[in-house]
Amino acid sequence: MEDDDLDKKQSTDLTEETLEHERSELEEAWAPGKGFYGWLTDVDHKSVGLRTVVTAFAFFGLAGLLALVMRLQLAVPENDVLGPDLYNQFFTTHGSAMMFLFAVPVMEGMGIYLVPLMVGTRNVSFPRMNLYGYYVYLIGGVLLFTALVLNIGPDAGWFAYVPLSGPEFGPGKRVDLWSQMVSLTEIAALVGAVNIIVTVLKHRAPGMSLNRIPLFVWSEVVTAFMIVFAMPAVMLSSTLLSMDRLTDVSTHFFNVAEGGDPILWQHLFWFFGHPEVYIIFIPATGFVSQIITTFSRRKTFGYTALVLTMIATGFIGFGVWVHHMFTTPLPQLGQSIFTAASMLIVVPNGVQIFCWLATLWLGRLNIRVPLLFVFGFFAIFVMGGLTGVMLASVPLDLQLHDTFFVVAHFHHVLIGGAVFPLIGAIYYWFPKFTGKMLNEGLGKVNFVLLFVGFFLVFFPMHFLGIDGMPRRVYTYVEETGWGDLNLLATVGAFTMGVGVLVFIVNVLRGLLSGESASNNPWGADTLEWSADSPPRPYNFQNIPVVQGRHSLWELTDDAPVVTGLHTKFRELLCTTIHDASPEHRYAIPGPSIIPFLLSLVTGATFIGFAFTPWSIPLGMGASFIVLFGWFWSNSTEHRPPHLPEKDNPVYDEEGQTE
Amino acid sequence: MTSENFVPKTSLDVSDLPSTEFDHRSPLWWGNLIGLMIETAMFGIMIAVFFTVAMNLRPFPPPRVDRFPVLLDSEPNLTLPIIGLLVLLISLVPGILLDLAGRRRDVKSIKILLPVTLSINLALILIRYYEFDSLHFKWNDNAYGSATWMILGLHMFHLIVLFCEDVYLTVWTFVRGIDEKHALDLTVAAVYWYWIVGMWVLLFPIVYLVPRML
Amino acid sequence: MKRTKSKLSIVVLACAALASCGGPQNALDSAGVQAGRLESLWWVFFWVCAVVYVIVMAILVIAFLRNRRADEKSAPELLPDPAREQRVSNIVKGAVGISIIVLFTLMVLSFRTGRAVNSLSYAESPIEIRITGNQWWWDVEYRDPVPSMNIRTANELHLPVGRPVKLNLQSTDVIHSFWLPNMHGKIDLIPGYETTFFFRPDEAGTYFGQCAEFCGYQHAKMRFAVTVESQEDYEKWAAAQRQVPPPPVDPLQQRGQQIFLTSVCTQCHAVAGTTANARVGPDLTHIATRHYIAAASMHNVHDHLKTWITDPQRIKPGVRMPMNTYAEEDLNALVTYLENLK
Known about the structure:
The complex is a heterotrimer. By secondary structure, chain A is mainly alpha-helical. Chain A has helices at about 15-30, 35-40, 45-75, 85-120, 125-150, 175-200, 215-245, 260-295, 305-315, 330-345, 345-360, 370-390, 395-400, 405-435, 440-465, 485-515, 595-610, 615-635, and strands at about 10, 560-565, 570-575, 580-585, 650. Chain A has a domain at about 365-435 and about 445-515. Chain A has a two-stranded antiparallel sheet with strand order 3-4. Chain C has 3 domains: about 30-65 and about 80-120; about 125-240, Immunoglobulin-like, CATH 2.60.40; about 250-340, Cupredoxins -  blue copper proteins (Immunoglobulin-like, Sandwich), CATH 2.60.40.420. Chain C has a 5-stranded mixed β-sheet with strand order 3-2-1-5-8. The longest helix of chain C is centred in the N-terminal third of the chain and has 37 residues, at about 80-120. Classes of the chains: A mainly alpha, B mainly alpha, C alpha+beta.
């Protein structure tokens, strides 16, 4: 259907009376339950998205505190703040929490919140599964930190190399609990990815053809596909490790004596591990694209290039994992191929940087806090990307691998490339999430503290690595002379800590007494800014019809809106994949306690699996029972009184509808 | 032009659109497909693990030396696996018929075919249960045993999951009948079935024939 | 605000730069042929990356400073001047093209350097040393075609200047990584794999390395010391190492040896010429010749030996050596005995 085919007709559907009547029906149909039970059962994507983001930031804070204590330990040589056992647990939990419990969930959570709004629909395709994913993630995160508090936290690094993490050298349940945390968080990530992909494929507002999809939505779709192909690798490999470790199972996947291979673990882990960092980075590039466009007051430069580079990065990201293994005895030729691929992936990144610089150069800048964080992103991420080019070279990597140089590199790309855009995104979308503005002045203080603090912590680490300091060391002898730079880094860490505190203060202050925000305080272009601040549970009174890539900037006076969707029942519009013409209507279920119940079963199954293999068949049985209830409830919601008969006709033996 | 003062004047009426569509028009079908992509990735990883183990063990498969007489040719026994493969391929017939019956909304055929596919599912699970013994190693004997049991086990997991899905669909059909949504569910479950069969067509030679070739 | 930030970064840079340009455990202070090649490659990469970074940041800062300002009510530019867009588009394409050329060049340089640093494997008559990684010490064995000429030591190497060294690396437990930054990059020691690694020290001196792959509790202090010396000095050292120490004549040392042979020491340690021949822990035959103990994390002096023997868990928690209690005179005798194992 072309734009001019869209039947623009003057309609009685749009009188004030009809609109008012529809609004009250929508409010009732989409209202969540009341009280705590209502919150527990709420399948609104905004509720699920927000709680994911808030939970992720809580884990960020906890992992950050661990880092502060680690920095205290490393501030002076031969320090005794943490002994080796606790230090090992701390750095393992810090890394695991940051990667599995903060970085990926926060990016997915922002996507779950923003994507349906940005594509112009009312919810994700599978709302109950969405809620289930959140609870499973929460259980996984609580599991990890409970283990740490009980002094049985994992202590073999976030990447758990065998044989150190295997049954012989990693006694107890520490690594098993890590393994189950991984499985639980990966289930949550996968479930979120399915939702994002299907929502973007099938529920875009009419007129939002593929070449009009906002860049952040593209970033979330590419990321979701990466999750689909990368997460199974780590789920499976952590399961294989668990089975090697369980005495009742005692498989030999990584046991050299029986034909297994420690290097196999490294391959399996990094096949996931490298895409993982792009899973974290690509949504951040989506944030950067949106913020730069809004605050440069012009159409994005190089939209098509930006989309293609994200897709290219997604693909190439699967072909570089061996660069984490250059010091293993793998054949030279094979390693060289991965050098080439690792350098190749810099090209799409470079294209992105150049396109963004072009947009900034050609635009008229509204310098607000979100744009400041984008500036910080450039300053820090580009440096990290360049040290990445160094690490891509096999000979250089032989010196730099497993040293503090690498710690500097990945913190530059992760904090610069993901956290800075994320904080900027929070400043940007906070008015939409809450209806309040964050304070500009505090925001600037926030930025300066984080920016300066970051450089103080992580820039010196380049030198420490070159000077011989390896990673994952709980202390160092005084003779090495590493004390001064480490002390500087510790000072920087606490500066960053203060910066994070300022952020928290700004958020709390904003929630309690922030300035009221209009629907579109930044004058931005994407659809979420036409919804209320915060949006109603049903997002839009009428699904909009999109007329351009920058929807709100290209909105004409006579732009139609969608009418005819049920307002008494929860219904989404399905559109075609290529050019988003209306195709069919799709009923979605409402609140339910079952996602929460199933998450408890899933959590118990996996936590039990750390102790006995029988947990799996028992868990499958329990899951079957709960899922039976889920499907039955879902099926019942597709019949009267939840849905009119004509929307879901029943057939009798003669093949006729009843 | 901001959205703040936009007042809608024209409408695009979608009330005539249907409420259910099949195949690539259905979000459920896409959700199922992506789920299958995830599971395919899992099997891909397991195949890579299998071949890594195969490269590490010489001879491959390793001889069974912990019993008398020693078993030098420890390739898996092929009898039951071949029977299983054949039954799996034959099961495509009722599977496809059920798929087509769902599309025709032919309630009578569905009510016959659902119990049939359910029985075949059960038979396949039983065959698979005994198929593990065709391998001469247990999962904890060596890495080769671990890898093959894992592949067979993962695939059996899918057989069981589909069986449970079919149980649900059977119960609903006999209790509440076939409505548009469940006609769709039948076709989506059929896709899962085709994938399970297709996956096994790929895995069978790897598990049972590759050891004879290496 | 931006000016104070840049001043601060200069100060930070200067401090940091001073710390990293030299030292006995430093990758840019090359004392071997491979480290030299890697150092050269590093500087090429460094300057290329520095120039790129400065250019990108300059564009960014200039854009931030010079562009006309707008606010959220300014009308967005949806139809910009096509000529200007085209110009910038050409610049972007040019920048991408230059990036590809630069990356390709760096890649080729990297491959060439990689081939060069591996070319020592064709060296003739290298010194062959087998290094076995254990949690948390290095077992060192110099291999000679004549087995009686083998040398067994731990946590240290002596090497003659200018002669290639061939390391045979393996691990008895978990993955370790041998890293001597002044000489070469690192190489992993993986259980089940035997790896060969070549390097050639070209400058005399004392250098340090440490394990670079997380291997458990005392990964942080799994260090080793390498002394590179002239050929004569090396021969002298090697000859001394091959000698079996004679039985002690001094009564205090005799008492020390008696205590050594009747304590749990012999469960793990070996001294050639006695009945102690366990290989669980480092070989102690010539311990007095070593400058460091406890995997090169402490100086080999009388007091340190005493504290290490009596309470190793306090110094290196988690290490495999148990605590040992001795009467003061017994401990003194034991340490004196060890100090004379030259």
